[in-house]
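Hey all, sorry for the wall of text incoming. These are the two entities for the joint prediction.
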Amino acid sequence: MHPVDFLTPRAMTTPDRPALVWGNRTLTYGALKTWARALEAQLARAGVTAGSRVAALLPKSPAAVAAIHAVAHLGAVLVPLNLRLTPEEMRAQIARSGATHVLATPSTAERAHAVVEERRVTAIASEELGIAEDPVPLPSPFAIRNSPFAILFTSGTTGAPKAAVLTAANFYHSAVASVFRLGVLPDDRWLLTLPLYHVGGLSILFRSALYGIAVVLLENVEASFDPRWLYETLRRRHVTLVSLVPTMLHRLLEAVPEPPPPSLRLVLLGGAAASPELLQRALARGYPVATTYGLTEATSQVATATPPEVRRKPGSVGRPLLHTRVRVVDGQGRTLPPGEVGEILVSGPTVFSGYDGDPRATRAALQDGWLHTGDLGYLDAEGDLWVVNRRSDLIVTGGENVYPAEVEAVLRQHPAVAEACVVGLDDAEWGQRVAAAVVLKPHADVTPQMLEDFCRQRLAGYKVPRRIRILPDLPRTASGKVQRPLVRERLQTEAKP
Amino acid sequence: MHPVDFLTPRAMTTPDRPALVWGNRTLTYGALKTWARALEAQLARAGVTAGSRVAALLPKSPAAVAAIHAVAHLGAVLVPLNLRLTPEEMRAQIARSGATHVLATPSTAERAHAVVEERRVTAIASEELGIAEDPVPLPSPFAIRNSPFAILFTSGTTGAPKAAVLTAANFYHSAVASVFRLGVLPDDRWLLTLPLYHVGGLSILFRSALYGIAVVLLENVEASFDPRWLYETLRRRHVTLVSLVPTMLHRLLEAVPEPPPPSLRLVLLGGAAASPELLQRALARGYPVATTYGLTEATSQVATATPPEVRRKPGSVGRPLLHTRVRVVDGQGRTLPPGEVGEILVSGPTVFSGYDGDPRATRAALQDGWLHTGDLGYLDAEGDLWVVNRRSDLIVTGGENVYPAEVEAVLRQHPAVAEACVVGLDDAEWGQRVAAAVVLKPHADVTPQMLEDFCRQRLAGYKVPRRIRILPDLPRTASGKVQRPLVRERLQTEAKP
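and here's what came out:
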């Protein structure tokens, strides 16, 4: 039996529709499939087979899109890696995922070579490849696979990133539920701004193939985020749909005073809580914002408020998607009445199947079919979800999740550090910024800058504390637990200009 | 385990969105569910349980919509009956379906009582009912049921109507594939013009519940089709989507010279082949026509051309929907190259599971997972489907299918008739009209009007031949087979003014 990917049936059905738009170029679904087949042959020659795990260092480039579909069509499992990881973090995740191969593009090949032996790296060309294909075969009978399709690393609360296993069925049901909330039109074009190693970016590729709509790439693919480029791409490429994290929207509003281009039908805003001020500003400027709450373990969207709902109730993330169920429970697992804050639980066809090779973490996250998100929130009387706080101590900076435990573990590795407490400080541009309070060992001598440098060598840049404060001790509860909220309050106050 | 219907998850998800619009009234999904629950209680009191088969005489009324969802939520199987059947035909279909109960509205209750004992009839009120509900329960976990959901009668080529069994999964995948071709927007409104006993009408209810959009009913629900009412409803109720058969579109263009209301996004034209002239006229008038080929056994749409595709290639029905596969084969089952006409075969998740209680017909229709439609057509070099002829001798008049064999069998029951050949004559308004050539027994004395009256007592009105010609004999092949095309040609020529 041939595995079912999302590109093949689409290319059979509407080969002439645009699949990928970047700059002045447009690639049809037929041409994208041809390119994917060429890369599939290259991967097969390198020894990738059905069930292989393929780690991937993929920027948001056309070749990366073709490669992702090639991995799926082979029946291999994609393990996209965060491009901002340090070599050490990267090496650890490749080992953890059991990946036998590493996929890279010209711009990431060097980094790949730095972390694994050369024979395990498959470097793909950035240019479109063709391949002579056999006469078009009929696509395989339709089936929604429940076997692993992609493994995405999420920062775990324990500090060690966990490997969430998502199936083709998860992505399929996510795409269907999303369209049943947000709608789609045959000529829609979705601008890819989020990284392909984030569920919010990766799922756009699969969603678009199912819908038969085009993915638009930013024209400065390899460069860092630039709000003016974002606006220009929206305008020039007649983009109708775009996913943004609040930091991106904030920067867009700051950098570009014009109203949104008329083609824009929807801004899907997620990845972190959006402040009411940001929402009001965006709505006033005419941006059709839909707020969403989602997480990797639920294949992105759990609940989404459409633009009219955001206007009526700014701050809510709306109702759960069709076929997704949400409960809010107290510490004993009892369902709470409307308005009361508790942990958000999620069940439904988009909930992941567990953490790879980590039955303990899986058992903690999935209980009786319910995903325990660790996020706090409440359902109001109308059934709309409000997210009060991401997992109590989670920091979301520019759409990236940072778990204090991971950063604290690194700080404690420094020979001068006795204790560390990492918190997120409010920040208009980034949502939150990472900060740390540190207690030194007796007679130790170290500056905050030295500690920051120490972190920078061991952690992806976005995880490094931007502010480190050395304190004589940390505030603790009677039982000896660090009072994180007090640390946060103190650092926040000091951070004020 | 509670069966999954389509209304319940939708009502849980967006209870406040409009579900049903008729006249000035709008019913939300929450209110429609409450109504459906009240009817469900009534059905349960009447003895309907999960698995029961419920024959239904339902006009396109609000109560009928609620009742259909009630039957689904009970886990019972809906058997909607053509309202134009004679009492005799109706009695036969109720017996064939094994229905224990008959569901009727105030306007159809009398007809129901005429064909079955009173205790088997459940007459529902036309007024909205409420019911005290328990505190809102969480919807059941998502599952796509593969068990019977509805049984629809289709005219069989043998003359005896066959009972096609459709599952909830069939309707689900049809709805998803349709949206992946035609798109949907959260504020769409679908006007129900087709009968609820046709797959094209029934599927609109399930599709709309999945999408969360409103179904609009014609304001003169119980009256016969009136193109001016159609136009007025489109305009006043801001309808965006409508399914029409060619006869309806023809009459709309004749009766209303104005361009379509601006809200109208799509006219899904199916049920019979549309003439290129009709398409050109509709496009010229500004109607966004999408042509579709579908059949009951594939839960409606198989292939659909979007308006730009219709403009480019009028007459084609476009590519198969995503995950639907189409082959065109010769008499030996060999796949034909592009451009060659053969039988259209269909496979995919919308293909039905067989004819109820008729393993022979099921085996003939479903071979190796392929539905043998009996319809003739070809795929062009681009993969677009062209339907050349509905099952060679099938007559489609005003969107209703008429099988000559069924009408011929009735004619032959008349004591004066020796032989009969029923054909369809071209007709600008109806697409085709039923006509018959009849050979009388020696010394028999009967007029065409007497034969027509004889048919009218035994057949639904649309099946009755509008033109009956008495001939001394029928043209036959050397092997003795009636040459239907020659009969058709002769009657067509005589019919010309």
